[in-house]
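User: I'm writing a tutorial on reading structure tokens. Could you give me a worked example: one chain, its sequence, then its tokens, then a sentence or two explaining what the tokens reveal?
Assistant: Sure. Here is the example chain.
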Amino acid sequence: MECHLLADKPEYISQIAKWYNDEWGYISESIGESIDTGRSAEVLALKLADYLNRDTLPLIVLIIENDNLLGAAQLRFHEMDIYPDKEHWVGGVYIDKPYRGQGIATILINQIIKLAKRHGVSHLYLQTEDHSGGLYKQLGWKAIEQVNYHNVDVLVMEKSL
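And here are its predicted structure tokens:
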């Protein structure tokens, strides 16, 4: 297994967009009087172009084995607008279903932390639907609070780097 930046493997954008749509496409965001439908695979693929960076954020880390994409994770800005003071976030952590439970998410999270440190980030945040904290708690993340965000109950967590 090897970690790569999406910038070095842009051919995987459509797969990541499909994963994100399949996993989180049901979440709609109210914007004034309308609903944001920006979670279709096509729209997500366009948004992922913002992550084609090597030396600046946002970034996506991929884990690949034998040209097979196993998972992805993002290092991004301001994931939750209700926390304008919390700048750097881990998001979009997704492991393809056949590869879950094999430690791949841990590898991705550790790679994101390494990149964040390289970019001078001192605190990372994330949101998870697992209210126990799950893997993130095992990796030393601390719960901040549970909130309902875009009609989904999530646990917000923090890690000092």
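What the tokens reveal: Confidence is low (pLDDT under 50) at residues 30-37. The helical segments are 13-24, 41-48, 104-118, 134-138.
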